[in-house]
Specification:
Strand content: under 5%
CATH class of the domain at 298-446: Mainly Alpha
Largest sheet: none
Helix content: over 70%
Shape: elongated
CATH topology of the domain at 298-446: Serine Threonine Protein Phosphatase 5, Tetratricopeptide repeat
CATH architecture of the domain at 298-446: Alpha Horseshoe
Number of helices: 25
Length: 479
Amino acid sequence: MSLSRVLIPMILLIFIMNALCEDETADYWNSKGNKFENVDMYEEAIQCYDRALKIDPEYKNAWYNKGWALYQLDMNEESIQCYDKALQIDPEYDHAWYNKGLALYMLDNYEEAIKCFDQAIRIDPTDADYWRLKGSSLYELDRNVEAIQNFDKSIKIDPSQEKTWNEKGLALNALERYEEAVSCYDRAIKIDSNDKYSWSNKGHVLGVMGRYDEAVQCYDQALRIDPKFKSAWRNKGSYLVDLGKYDEAVQSCDQALQIDPKYIDAWNDKGRALYNLDKNYEAIQCYDQALEIDPKFKHAWMNKGLALDNLGKYDEAVQCYDQALQIDPQYKSAWKNKGSALIDLGKYDEAVQSYDQALQIDPTYADAWIDKGVAFYQMDNYDEAVKCYNQSLQINPDDGLTWNNLGWALNGLNREADAQKAFARAEALGYAVKSDVISTGSSLISSMPESLSKQQSGLISSTSDEGEHSFGMFSSTPD
């Protein structure tokens, strides 16, 4: 028998045995798990990582990758346990610190998340994402100055990430540094003109600044990118109300509600638009829809009260304001509007008490001072009325309505010369003097157009629930 006839079968046998053994290695199962993960088959990926870890319980990358797959399934607590296993094996594993911080962030545990990001930064201070997510956590804790410092460090490392510019804009907005916020959103949009979140957030800030037309244009850009972007439809509707374009506002809110019929803010803003169209019954139906979804939605209770007030149903209006105040006793607008309804019911003493509650919350609430003056005037208590109007004028000396009301209260005291001066001042301010005192009226409340953050405070960060979480994760073996 020749040597070759013996060696060839032996080599083939060794090759087959190696191939069979390969199926049992931890690397094989980890790699297979990565392939499942890459096509979003996370449960299958987890099974593969478990096979790898059964073979090698000290395989840190398999623990890491299992943690990432669990994170993708919103199993954040289980994900953290996996990262902890990886960190027990290698305490200097910066990616594991980062992703553990990420899972803690999604659990709203921002303080612990920051500790994890600090560990990642200690190991590798050159990773822009580590600084950015630390900044995002600080933002969620309202530590906005510190957040901006971290965003700036991230930008210094990598100025090309639109997410960082967007999130810096969120923190600047929270600090009411609106022009700077707009500049950040512009930088984000320059990097990626299809970043719907930056367009939407820019729209929010422009709206806060009273630049409603420009705000609407920004939302249109966001909707060009994503026609199913429900908060952009709703926010656009809210600012169309501010522009007096009520029919368009209704259409915009309807688009949001077509996407999400349980979107209570869109029901509320549709109600606002219908109220301004004097369609009070339809407005009430919208508020009722919102309240069916969330009976503790205070803005809908208050706005429903205003619509009832408009219909002359003052007792029912008071009941709605009381519901809002039961939810939030510090809701100054509800106290003020309740006072207005009580005046309409001729319950002037109770109205004064209601205004006092509003003023206890905010002593600079000029409208409450004005309407409290109206209640005193209706009781022929002109001295107290004059005091109230003077308080209002200390806050806003150029309000023609207040000068008008002051004139009539002074007239009631037979101080005709002073009354004429007050009327003259009202006219000089462009206010047409009325034949009696006038209340400020009631103003509808929007639940604030969203520039949504993860916590729905209004701003949309790249961690928004409106879309995917783009954190720059490491879904495959990072080493």
